[in-house]
Amino acid sequence: MRQTSKGCVAGEGEAPRGGNRNSLYDEVTAKIIGQLEAGRFPWVQPWGPVDGAGQGGLCPALPHNALTGRSYSGVNVLLLWGSVIEGGYPSQGWLTFKQALEAGGNVRKGEKGVTVVYADRFTPQAEKARAQESGEDARSVPFLKRFTVFNVAQCEGLGEGQGKELFGDPAPLPEREMVPLAEEVITASGVPFRIGGAKAFYVPSADYVQVPPQPAFFEQINYYRTALHELCHATGHGSRLDRKILNPFGSKDYAREEMVAEMGSAFLCAALGIVPTVRHADYLGSWLEVLREDNRAIFRAASQASKAAEWLLAKHAEYRVSKDGEDGEDGREAPQSKPAEPEQGSITEGRAAA
């Protein structure tokens, strides 16, 4: 099922900033619900097969601003990935109408843009004055505004003449490079990592991840997809990002945390050049229930997912810097001869290796 993109039409200017915050939450949530109800997970399908020469499809990547090179985050990743699928675009690069002009080109007339959102907080001057007089902390006010972007495939003349140079899409990594990169992310996380047993899970009380041995997986890359999913759970530990991760199985809070780990691992896989897959399609009903009753749930979950992926990527960047010129140790626990079983309160994948 294809969703209709909402946004301004080229030639009509930018979509208005600000607007009714609740209607914007409703609009975005309805779009994500519609995709899920149609059986399409907006965090796993924004690409097709890419051949050895980098042709024939779109390689996994996070959507980015083609002029600044900065990756989008949170719910904007889902919105832009969904639009890539809908439009069949060959790029993850996006520009505002004005940026297309700065790049020496323009958006083709009649092209429809995609609405993305920006959330932040600000402190009104009156509140600052009140806080200064009373000696209390100033209260900031949350705000949400929308703006419109266009895929670079909707533009023409980019990079010609005196236009600014654009950031392109990353070249696809061969699988032999994806694997050591994923291994480095696991090591760099510092999360105790055990190998053994027939299930994948994270135990918050003892703070360790366990996954089945790699030969147990039918596809080698699924070992890494599973490991990254569980590491996203581990980022919620109190010593890291401190999310609410100790939740009764089957509860709405449990479903929320699974949604965070699902999206976080998808964002992380895309950043590493690995095609994400759905690890927990069986939670679809629970996710839909959460989204239908709370129009801000997808915003919170996507934001937390981005923070989880960014935390792990930042640890990996630190690891690469420290590893330059050194032969660091693996840093992971050795595989257990007697694999541990999932403990009470573990966040479990609940299925054998696939």
UniProtKB/TrEMBL annotation:
Pfam assignment, any one: ArdcN
Record GO terms (molecular function): single-stranded DNA binding
Name used for this protein in its record: Antirestriction protein ArdC
Organism, as annotated: Novosphingobium sediminicola
Chain intervals for the UniProt region annotation (Disordered): 1-21, 322-354
Occurrences of domain N-terminal (ranges): 23-150
UniProt biased composition (Basic and acidic residues): 322-335
Transmembrane segments: none
Residue ranges occupied by any Polyvalent protein metallopeptidase domain in the UniProt entry: 182-304
Organism superkingdom: Bacteria
